[in-house]
């Protein structure tokens, strides 16, 4: 059976939070990896069943009521997850940013579109930075959250970098951004 990134996401979530229903997974993803890993959440309803058929998850179905399905990680699933975590990641950083795509095609639009796009992106990145900083303030000192704060730090760095870019673009100051980048470059 071929495992996808979504397979590992499901197994990883269950490894972190314990037995989970697909709805539990959907909620957990929206509050964590959903900030940086976008995919159709309908997969969180189909993928656990596929993993259970492969023996990587165990399935427990309620006898009565809503007959909820709860999935837990099997030893085979834990081994598969650990192998994936330990394996090299040769894939290049992937970013699917609609704003960047619009910026690429900017010459086909109106001259005012770039400025509007930049201002909109500034607001969005400032909002995301505020959300992330709020998460750090609420959970940053809690033992359970400490390993996950590393990912949040990466998210903050990326948001600040994007904010620097869009702010420079909006202020017609990309030359300053280039100079600052050159000054930080250790290769001289």
How would you portray this structure in words?
The structure is a single chain. The protein is 62% helix and 5% strand. The chain contains 8 helices and 2 strands; from the N terminus they run αααββααααα. The chain starts with a helix and ends with a helix. The chain has helices at 5-17, 22-30, 43-53, 75-86, 98-104, 112-139, 146-170, 174-184, and strands at 57-61, 69-73. The protein has 188 residues and is mainly alpha-helical. The chain has a two-stranded antiparallel sheet. The mean pLDDT is 91.
Summary, kept brief:
The protein is mostly helical and 188 residues long. 62% of the residues lie in helices and 5% in strands.
Can you list the strand order of the major beta sheet?
Answer: 1-2
What share of residues is helical? 55-70%
For the largest beta-sheet, the strand count, sense and barrel status come to:
2 strands, antiparallel
Element order: H for helix, E for strand = HHHEEHHHHH
Strand content: 5-15%
Fill in the keyword field for this structure.
two-stranded antiparallel sheet; 188 residues; 62% helix; mainly alpha; elongated
Task: Give a topology summary.
Layout: H1 5-17, H2 22-30, H3 43-53, E1 57-61, E2 69-73, H4 75-86, H5 98-104, H6 112-139, H7 146-170, H8 174-184
Antiparallel strand pairs: 1-2
Helix pairs in contact: 1-3, 1-4, 2-3, 6-7, 7-8
């Amino acid at each position: 059976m071929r495992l996808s990134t979504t397979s590992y996401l499901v197994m990883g979530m269950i490894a972190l939070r314990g037995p989970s229903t697909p709805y539990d997974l959907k909620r957990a993803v929206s509050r964590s990896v959903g900030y940086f890993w976008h995919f159709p959440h309908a997969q969180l309803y189909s993928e656990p069943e596929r993993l259970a058929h492969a023996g990587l998850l165990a399935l427990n179905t309620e006898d009565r009521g809503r007959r909820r399905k709860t999935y837990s990680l099997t030893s085979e699933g834990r081994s598969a997850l650990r192998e994936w975590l330990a394996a090299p990641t040769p894939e290049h950083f992937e970013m699917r940013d609609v704003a960047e795509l619009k910026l690429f095609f900017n010459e086909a639009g109106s001259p005012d579109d770039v400025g509007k796009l930049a201002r909109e992106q500034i607001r969005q990145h400032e909002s995301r930075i505020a959300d992330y900083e709020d998460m750090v303030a609420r959970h940053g000192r809690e033992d359970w959250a400490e390993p996950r704060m590393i990912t949040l730090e990466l998210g903050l760095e990326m948001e600040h970098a994007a904010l620097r870019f869009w702010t420079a673009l909006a202020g017609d100051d990309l030359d300053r951004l280039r100079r600052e980048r050159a000054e930080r470059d250790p290769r001289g």
